[in-house]
Amino acid sequence: MRQMEKVASRVPYMTCPGNHERKPWNFSHYDARFSMLGDRFDHNDFPPAKVEPQRSARFSRSPPPPKPKPPNPPLATRINNHYHSVDIGPYHIVLFNTEFYYYTEYGWTQIRAQYEWLRADLEKANRNRQKRPWIIVLGHRPLYCLKLTGDLSCNRITLERARLRTGVRMYGDDSRGLEFGLEELFFNASVDLQVYGHEHFVARFLPVYDHDVMLPKEKEEEKVTTTTTLAPDDITTTTEPSFTTTTTTTTTDNSITITTDPTTTTDPSITFDPFTDFTTTITSTDSTTTTTDFTSTTTDFITTTEPTTTTSSPTSTTTLSPTPTTTTTTPGPTTTSAPVNHYNDPGGPIHITSGSAGNRELHPLINPLAKHSEMVAKCYYDYGYTRLRVLDRLTIVVEQVSVDQNGTVVDSQQISKSVDRPEWDIEANEVSSNWWRKR
After folding, report:
1. 382 with 166: CB under 8 angstroms?
2. Span 282-310, pLDDT tens digits
3. Three-class SS string for 212-232?
4. How far apart are CA 209 and CA 350, in angstroms?
5. Using CA atoms, how far apart are residues 100 and 271, in angstroms rounded to an integer?
6. pLDDT band at 35 (very low <50, low <70, confident <90, very high)
């Protein structure tokens, strides 16, 4: 806190509690030192203070009394330090307490109270989306976690904190269903960006919901068509293989019967058989030359057989060679798939983990599964902080500024959208990251 005093004494310093703030005694240490903007009450909820009737100022030497101010609720009932919101430029920023879901020894009702406040605040913010198109939420523990050790709240197989993501069974009652899950609430409210800490490294996720990477709307098959001109070396010529057929010629009263059985090819690897069960009978009334055309769906075979006038039944074998066919590959348009920019009109909330501003616990191990998860765009060690820049009302840039590297921006991602409030399609997902569910 002494290190932050120089900044916090000059710049509004908005906070939300983490796991360390629970000590001692139910966040009392934190509550006594911070007082955020607003509180959980709307001043209209308080009954107006009683005002004694006053004489008209015309007949009174003293000015009229000031209007009564609503009472300031006592510290015991104020929990604005735990969840609150503020409008800054095009942003509506919501800060909330993830620790309510884990330190239930201090009570359960705060989970319900915060959830209902979040829902009401987000509904109000969405009615004001034209003025403030970006909704950003900040909390301590990420819904999706990449930490390998030292945190029992993180499932190291599913890479999630299920109590935050899908909800809790209130009062520890296993007969109750899961309640007050935050992921569905934030998704339905079209929250653009979720920023968390707790894990002492930096991670940037793709737009994600229920472990699935979400595609931009109507861009599931975003492709780029290009025309490619083939060089002479790219033109290929192929020739159909030759076939061997046995022709049996029988002469009886100038009748010629030809039976073809091309079951053998010159290339044993060729399985093409255009003459299966193909028999042709030709009858001739004279001893002239007879020409027989064998037509296949792919190759024309032409055979000329000259009958021989004998009293016996000669048999001859004729080799049929198909007409050579040349196949030429001509230049034409080719279609290639281009990578989809998930941050241009994102299909879901974008999660940022920025938990490495500096700490005495150093960096934890990153779960090796993070490298195989389609949800994770980047994950790395670096001491620094996250910064938002506004390019225009519908375009922002998320930057990670490195303290280790003297203020160098080590990661920068532009996020843009075409509408104030995106309408996300839960079915439009690119690839499921739920590989662990398919085992």
Report:
1. no
2. 333 444 444 444 343 443 433 444 444 44
3. EEECCCCCCCCEEEEEECCCH
4. 9
5. 70
6. confident
